Known about the structure:
By secondary structure, this protein is α/β, with parallel strands linked by helices. The chain contains six helices and nine strands; from the N terminus they run ααβαβαββαβββαββ. The chain has helices spanning 7-16, 26-32, 48-53, 66-75, 109-122, 152-159; strands at residues 38-41, 58-63, 81-83, 95-101, 123-134, 139-142, 145-148, 163-171, 179-186. The chain is globular, with a radius of gyration of 15 Å.
Amino acid sequence: MSFYDEEKNVSKYIEMAEGYDGKEFIPVLRKHLKQDATLLELGMGPGKDVELLSDFFQVTGSDYSRLFLERFRKDHPDADLILLDALTLETERKFDCIYSNKVLYHLTKDQLKESFVKQSALLSKGGILFHTFWYGDQEENQSGLQMVYYTHETLSLLIGDEFEELEFQMYSEMQENDSFYLVLRKKE
């Protein structure tokens, strides 16, 4: 059983994440994507970003936790949601963009490298990746959750040759410059 397969952990995460969302990333995404582009959110959790992004894009929400998907579906019965692991990415669908907000740092470095390869296969021609990470160089495990922090340099080593970097930007979420986002385009 994984961490987010337990109702108490899902409830705790939703409470902790209150007040945090990705609205500041929408202008960045709109700069790189057309209105109504298809976008897959990896690790949607309670679905705040799915709702925000849906005003501009055709969003498919995904999570590996059925509980997050079931909770969101109760209030959004027509939402396009799929049960999906950010590592295996087992779907035949293609997207113009794959987005995640502090999700991929739960993968080990080897898993993240593998995920980038699989994400490339899900992107349409010239597709975009937009991911946020915690900035740093440590690894830790809290309550059974793996967390890997990255610098621009350490993350660049894992991306692979199938992407070109469009943007890298530090930002502050809880402390000054504790986070960054990365925008990559699939090479043609």
